[in-house]
């Protein structure tokens, strides 16, 4: 299981939408969370 970086929900990597950012893959529970991440990934990525 992975954690959606936007809402914190646990998601199944096999079923969830994903996006690669700076060499790491992030998984999302919904298109809304994926959209929010794509609009401002720095807000959700802890480096």
UniProtKB/TrEMBL annotation:
- Gene Ontology MF term list: oxidoreductase activity
Can you give the residue ranges of the TRASH domain?
A: 4-41
- Report the protein name in the record: TRASH domain-containing protein
User: Top-down, what is the taxonomic lineage of the species of origin?
Assistant: Archaea, Methanobacteriati, Methanobacteriota, Stenosarchaea group, Methanomicrobia
